[in-house]
Design goal:
423 residues; single chain; 8% strand; 13 helices; alpha+beta
Length: 423
């Protein structure tokens, strides 16, 4: 396979998949990529390899996805057992050790019978919708699936059995919760949206109650920009608007933001509410200390995972577990207070359970979740979907593959082999 030449050595990694819109009319492509977990090259074009591109309009449900996966798995099995002979005579091998994607995609290509829309929401345990989150976490003391029970209880069988489950190295721990979707595009958005909405209830924050909400949000955005310049934080966050604090599909507050921008807004909010909670004006306030504690623990979770390396020691993993528990403890208290007050803030959603699953997995595997989250595959899928938009309806896949190779060769000629930590 040409991807072995791209990685240049025997390696470990795994496939990642998703669907992305490539035309303004809503047309989408399904893209399956392959990446190496130890590849330190920064640019996604250099470190991700397209295995399959297919227009979603050509899919006939899972049977189409399964037919593609059968070919992918056959190639991966060959690389695992026989390897590939390189031009220099070296034989390289590739072992699949992770399967990446957001949970909607994991449910589709693994044909999981447990997902966010079902009563059973988790493939690691038997958590159900009425009781899927409690803080501090009790997951370590409750039932945990092993690979046989995972295959028996969480996967559909018969004609819908996923070829990925037959990989020679498959074990259930390869099915990872993605921290980018769980935290940056989940918990962060709800915390930021709810905290900003609550701060607008105060008369002396972001202007005053005599100002219109859009004007107060613009003032808040100016404060965020000032903080960003002072702390040299680069971002592409658009101006705060009322509609940017509303969920697209639900009534509760949710910051409309990209994953990285949400992390930046969270850090700014943490500084703001911690300063407010420590001021004389809010010393006796019921909400402000809880808002500060929730945002502080969540911001610390991000900060510590960004500073730590790929492999953790037990004390580091336990420290991250405490940050997760601290954030969700105050989050649940704030959610119950909002219900008592009759306002929609701090929604309790299945991704909060996934947050706890990530923290527990770090304690068990001693691997920093940041090194298997989906920033790089998502960036690559976005770039390829843009390329797909340049082709006509009859050659979208062909154009995308050809332009990928042209872009890859350009990076090689420019010597763009800058290293990063791989996250």
């Amino acid at each position: 396979m040409r991807c072995t030449a791209m990685f240049g050595m025997s390696s470990r990694g795994g496939p990642s998949g998703d669907e992305a819109q490539y035309r303004e009319n809503g047309d989408e492509v399904m893209l399956i990529t392959l990446g190496s977990i130890l590849d330190k090259r920064k640019h996604s074009v250099e470190s991700c390899y397209p295995l399959s591109i297919c227009r979603s309009e050509l899919k006939a449900g899972f049977p189409t996805t399964r037919a593609i996966l059968e070919a992918v798995v056959k190639s991966l099995e060959s690389l695992y057992f026989d390897g590939a002979l390189m031009p220099g005579g070296e034989r390289v091998f590739f072992a699949v050790c992770e399967i990446r994607g957001d949970w909607k995609w994991q449910q589709e290509w693994l044909q999981l019978s447990c997902n966010y829309l079902c009563n059973m929401i988790c493939h690691n345990c038997r958590a159900t919708k009425p009781s899927y989150v409690s803080a501090p976490s009790k997951l370590a003391t409750e039932f945990r699936h092993d690979t046989p029970s995972f295959l028996a209880e969480c996967c559909k069988h018969g004609d819908l059995f996923s070829p990925l489950l037959s990989l020679p190295s498959f074990r259930m721990q390869m099915v990872r919760w993605d921290g980018m979707h769980v935290n940056n595009l989940g918990t962060d958005l709800w915390v930021c949206g709810s905290v900003i909405k609550k701060l607008l209830d105060y008369d002396n924050i972001f202007g005053g109650l005599d100002m219109d909400e859009p004007d107060r949000l613009l003032l808040a955005y100016d404060m965020f920009k000032t903080w960003s310049r002072t702390n040299k934080v680069r971002h592409s966050m658009p101006k705060f608007r009322p509609w940017r604090l509303r969920s697209k599909n639900h009534p509760w507050p949710e910051l409309q933001s990209k994953a990285y921008n949400a992390r930046c807004v969270l850090a700014w909010l943490c500084d703001e509410v911690v300063a407010l909670a420590n001021s004389e004006s809010f010393r006796d306030d019921q909400w402000m200390p809880l808002l500060a504690s929730c945002t502080f623990h969540l911001a610390e979770w991000h900060r510590k995972t960004e500073l730590l390396g790929r492999f953790l020691v037990p004390d580091e993993a336990m420290d991250l577990q405490r940050e997760c528990d601290g954030c969700l403890t105050y989050y649940l208290v704030l959610s119950h207070m909002a219900v008592a007050a009759g306002v929609l803030l701090f929604p309790i959603r299945p991704k909060l359970h996934a947050f706890q699953e990530i923290a527990l997995a770090q304690r068990e595997d001693l691997i920093n979740h940041r090194f298997y989250q989906g920033f790089k595959p998502e960036d690559f899928i976005g770039r390829v979907s843009t390329i797909c938009g340049a082709g006509n309806n009859s050659n979208v896949e062909y154009i995308a593959i050809q332009r990928f190779y042209v872009g890859q060769k350009s990076h090689e000629r420019l010597g763009n082999d800058s290293s990063s930590d791989g996250a």
